[in-house]
């Protein structure tokens, strides 16, 4: 046997061994290929910090869960004690502490949903990574990547807004004395204060810095959960929107109707899975958001210092922004699913075979009913609902103002 034949067989054996090892690694890897892309970098990083990454070991996730739960529960306890102490004494403090408690409830609820439905989240993530790996057409890969790139930019802005917004809200009371040089007050000076009214049973002046350090350190965990949960929702919906775009692209190609149906059915299936995983969390978050907007507006009305008015105005704007980023992906899914019908209508259907025409009718019939996500099966996540909820939240102001007047 010649050396060239032996060399060819050896190379063939190495190639087969490489393929087998790659498949073995693919099945057992803890960081699927899709989640290693630049578009998922921020989302996966925050999920790992907060223990929400479903492909991370349970031991590491448990440490993150314990850290977040301990800090959250201790802060909620301190808020609750002070809230009870101020009932019938200072309504303003009661309202502020209720708003803070509601925010903590959202954090606990998002963490709880992620832990209890971890297998479900892992299932959908595994499915989309398998689909991503099977895309071998460069044009189709660009379509899917384009949608994720668009959301990646939003993810950067959202993550920065969450962290800087929260830390600014907490840190601003520390810098109150500096404002005396800019906006001096008559007959008194500003002192450093806590960002919220809490009761730890300690001397607040003596232990001011340790308590503030505890608040800052704990807030990193709160924000990580808050942002990671929302960003994973945005990125997963962007993948579904990409599938709808892929279905439209295949419809425009006369010989790819069957592949278009596969992409469309896959998109519809993922919408249902996203609905099952997220609808409860969004119902609780949005109800609390409505209350927070109304409560923050009332707090602004009763505050008499410019720094506190500014701080709670920023909080009010933050609630509006959070609202927007929840409803925007839902509206995009509605638009993308409806655009599939337009793509069917615009294609050269008269050049198709009878079988292909029938298949095209199937897609068109299903596309007449838009796909959408909901909040607790109670309302759709759309910009129309967004506007109506803003009106509802502002109507809460009247009720809260009357409570203050009692």
From TrEMBL:
It is found in: Cell membrane. The keyword Cell membrane applies. It holds the Pfam family 7tm_6. One of its GO terms (biological process) is sensory perception of smell. One of its GO terms (cellular component) is plasma membrane. The keyword Transmembrane helix applies. Keywords: Cell membrane, Membrane, Olfaction, Receptor, Sensory transduction, Transducer, Transmembrane, Transmembrane helix. It is a multi-pass membrane protein. Coiled coil: none annotated. The chain crosses the membrane at residues 62-81, 93-113, 153-176, 220-246, 281-303, 309-328. InterPro entries: 7tm6_olfct_rcpt. PANTHER family: ODORANT RECEPTOR, ODORANT RECEPTOR 19A-RELATED. Belongs to the insect chemoreceptor superfamily. Heteromeric odorant receptor channel (TC 1.A.69) family. This is Odorant receptor.
């Amino acid at each position: 046997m010649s050396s060239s034949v032996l060399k060819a067989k050896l190379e063939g054996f190495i190639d087969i061994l490489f393929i087998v090892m790659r498949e073995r690694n693919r099945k057992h890897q803890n960081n699927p290929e899709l989640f290693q892309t630049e578009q998922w970098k921020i989302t996966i990083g925050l999920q790992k910090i907060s223990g929400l990454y479903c492909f991370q070991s349970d031991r590491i996730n448990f440490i993150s869960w314990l850290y977040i739960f301990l800090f959250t529960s201790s802060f909620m306890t301190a808020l609750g004690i002070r809230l009870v102490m101020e009932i019938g004494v200072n309504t303003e403090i009661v309202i502020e502490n209720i708003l803070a408690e509601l925010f903590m409830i959202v954090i606990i609820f998002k963490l709880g949903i992620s832990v209890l439905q971890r297998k479900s989240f892992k299932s959908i993530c595994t499915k989309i990574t398998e689909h991503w790996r099977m895309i071998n057409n460069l044009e189709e890969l660009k379509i899917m990547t384009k949608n994720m790139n668009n959301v990646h930019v939003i993810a950067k802005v959202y993550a920065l807004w969450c962290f800087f917004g929260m830390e600014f809200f907490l840190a601003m009371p520390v810098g109150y004395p500096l404002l005396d040089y800019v906006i001096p007050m008559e007959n008194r000076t500003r002192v450093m204060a806590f960002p919220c009214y809490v009761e730890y049973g300690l001397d607040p002046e003596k232990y001011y810095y340790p308590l503030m350090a505890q608040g800052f350190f704990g807030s990193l965990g709160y924000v990580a959960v808050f942002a990671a949960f929302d960003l994973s929702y945005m990125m997963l919906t962007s993948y579904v929107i990409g599938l709808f775009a892929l279905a439209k692209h295949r419809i425009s190609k006369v010989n790819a109707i069957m592949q278009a149906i596969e992409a469309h059915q896959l998109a519809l299936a993922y919408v249902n899975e996203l609905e099952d995983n997220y609808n409860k969390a969004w119902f609780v978050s949005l109800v609390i958001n409505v209350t927070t907007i109304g409560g923050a507006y009332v707090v602004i009305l009763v505050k008499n210092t410019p720094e506190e008015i500014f701080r709670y105005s920023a909080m009010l704007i933050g609630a509006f922004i959070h609202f927007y980023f929840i409803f925007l992906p839902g509206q995009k899914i509605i638009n993308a699913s409806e655009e599939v019908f337009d793509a069917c209508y615009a294609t050269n259907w008269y050049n198709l075979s009878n079988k292909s025409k029938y298949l095209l009718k199937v897609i068109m019939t299903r596309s007449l009913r838009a796909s959408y996500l909901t909040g607790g099966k109670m309302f759709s996540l759309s910009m129309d609902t967004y506007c109506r909820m803003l009106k509802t939240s502002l109507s809460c102001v009247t009720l809260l103002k009357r409570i203050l007047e009692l």
